Amino acid sequence: MKFFEYNGKKIFEKEKIAILEGYLANSPEEAKEITSKMDKSVVLKSQVLVGGRGKAGGIKFADTPDEAFKKSIELFGMEIKGETVEHLLIEEKADIKNEFFISVTVDRNNKKPVIMASSEGGVDIENLAISSPEKLIKYHPNPLDEFLPYEAREIARKMQVPNELISKLGTIIWKLFNIFNKYDATTAEINPLILTDEGLIAADAKLEVENDSLFRHKDLVKMNNYKEKELDFVKLDGNIAVIGNGAGLTLTGMDMIKLNGGKPATFLDIGGGSSQDTIEKALNMVLDYEPVKVIFLNVLGGITRADDVAKGVIDVLNKTPKKVNIVIRLTGTNEKEGQELLEKAGIPFDISMEKAAKKAVEICKSLE
């Protein structure tokens, strides 16, 4: 679960990391009103769950309420990497003396958390590891031991900051790591952490929490208005929609399509416990995706029942006015019942994934 910046900052503030004064605006009128009440120069920050908003023009500055109104009109509704801006964080404009970068994430190769820090933060941090890798400090805390403040101070020393900042910066590194642990995060990041006359302040907040831990964090789910995606849908550049119940099975189906000379148009994982309703939603999604010429539905029923799959397919095909070229591989739980339903409806199927994938490619090529 990814957090919008304004929610991430609420958590950082709760854990005693300083943030800038800021308020959420849901319209240009609110942006103007907030700026008027703050009575200072502000930053208008698009709230999206992707990076690179600054370079994309998603952050603007305003000195007056009228200027905030005009610039917020430009921001509301704009798209940043496929996300539409619906909220703005109106934040005081800080007098920045220096910028730092601190991040805690999971190093899957080393099977440990990793703290990354640099005395050079900001929009070009992504290039730092390539251009100046010596400026990016990496430290792997032992996940079985407590991460102690002196370890955080040592990271600050390696960042080569002035002596008077080592203790203060170390404290923030220590607090950020504790947030990472406490909230079962996969990423907890501040970029930039800014130095002002008031001290060190988190000017941004990136927080991602492991979905499998959300049962322990009901308050976070409520705060973030989070709804887990029912379907994992990725659009690709081919013309054969691949739908499967489980990521592995879906990827295998894609491999079968490519092995036979076809090109997948989608990766659509309907999950291991798909219902009739889920099948219908998935089919309607790919039917609305223009490049799709053929649908390859690859189901090996475990928790998913083959008769539910068949009912979903039949219902969609009966309702849609479109001509649908669909190839179905159906086997597993209640396969006899599901296959009988398809037979009665005159819808062909196969129990072999290899044969079904080959047939899907053949049909697609015949339509070219």
Structure description:
- With 368 residues, the protein is α+β, with helices and mostly antiparallel strands.
- The chain folds into three domains: 21-92, Dna Ligase, domain 1; 98-223, D-amino Acid Aminotransferase, Chain A, domain 1 (2-Layer Sandwich); 232-366, Rossmann fold.
- Helix content is 38%, strand content 25%.
- The strands form four sheets. Strands 7, 8, 9, 10, 11 and 12 form a six-stranded antiparallel sheet that branches. Strands 13-15-14-16-17 form a five-stranded mixed sheet, with helices on both faces.
- The longest helix has 20 residues, at 163-182.
- The mean pLDDT is 92.
Can I get a quick summary?
By secondary structure, the protein is an alpha+beta fold.
Instruction: Find the structural class using helix and strand composition.
Output: alpha+beta
According to CATH, what is the class of the largest domain? Alpha Beta
> Which band does the percent of strand residues land in?
25-35%
Termini gap = 41 Å
Describe the structure using short key phrases.
single chain, 368 residues, alpha+beta, Dna Ligase, domain 1, D-amino Acid Aminotransferase, Chain A, domain 1, Rossmann fold, 5-stranded mixed β-sheet, 12 helices, 38% helix
Secondary-structure map:
Blueprint: H1 5-14, E1 22-25, H2 28-38, E2 42-46, E3 59-62, H3 65-75, E4 79-80, E5 83-84, E6 88-92, E7 98-107, E8 112-118, H4 125-131, E9 137-139, H5 149-158, H6 163-182, E10 185-196, E11 199-202, E12 206-209, H7 218-223, E13 232-235, E14 240-244, H8 247-259, E15 264-269, H9 276-287, E16 294-301, H10 306-319, E17 326-332, H11 335-344, H12 353-366
Helix pairs in contact: 2-3, 5-6, 9-10, 10-11
